[in-house]
């Protein structure tokens, strides 16, 4: 009788341990799936952040000591882009202000909205520059509200809806420091990042960004619903703005750390170590490697 009881108890214990193990595996798999989607969205946001900064930087490079130029060169942004100048001169004692309209956000976006970097844009971007952009300490403020209906992406049928508030301060001819107050990606969930970034121009062509090569370092926070993680560029992100290879980073590595879950996600922008323009990022979560292609 005792032996039969012990046998049943042992079977019950094995069943319970198996059930706990299955639940743990489900949680791990769910974390991997959710983590992969979040990592993909974060890659998209970092990529678009660089593109948005490039647009603002190109416009800033075209300004003069007096204020805005008589006409902005918009060839790199697509044929649909136009500029509305709100304040054209520094001589009135305050900043110059203008906005860029990239065209209507009716999907699919048109070929006229495709920029030099291969990305389509729609909606409005607001730029304010406090002093002549070639001066050290010159400050450029960039703002895109949710109401501006700003869309950007390499796929004209599925661009990303984003909003941003940030400012850059020119430290010298090659270096800019960037404060990201908020960068939001709107989809099934709202994903937000904030932080600080240093942008170094390894090569610099003026006017405009064509021919530029950037190096980016930075860190900050990533938020999605109740989930909060820290992000840090652990190996400089490199972007080369040349024909056929200006849409994504060609090198660099990022880490996402979730201290509550004691987990780290690694994003490698050059998994094949050849700085190619394949737009492939290698994501490593809990030892599992997945290659994703950004679009």
Note down, in words, how this protein is organized.
It is a single chain. This protein is α+β, with helices and mostly antiparallel strands and 295 residues long. The chain has a domain at 49-228. The protein is built from 1 helix and 15 strands; from the N terminus they run αβββββββββββββββ. The protein has a 15-stranded antiparallel β-sheet that branches. The protein is globular. 34% of the residues are buried. Mean pLDDT is 86; it is low at 12-32.
Q: What is the element string, with H for helices and E for strands?
A: HEEEEEEEEEEEEEEE
Strand content: 35-45%
Termini separation comes to 66 Å
DSSP strand tally: 15
Tally of helical runs: 1
Mean pLDDT: 86
Residue runs with pLDDT of under 50 for 5 or more positions: 12-32
Question: Briefly, what is this?
Answer:
With 295 residues, the chain is of the alpha+beta class.
How would you summarize the topology of this molecule?
Elements lengths: L1 H60 L20 E6 L8 E6 L18 E3 L1 E6 L9 E6 L5 E4 L6 E11 L4 E12 L3 E14 L9 E12 L2 E14 L10 E8 L4 E6 L11 E6 L2 E6 L2
Antiparallel strand pairs: 1-2, 2-4, 3-6, 4-5, 5-7, 6-7, 7-8, 8-9, 9-10, 10-11, 11-12, 12-13, 13-14, 14-15
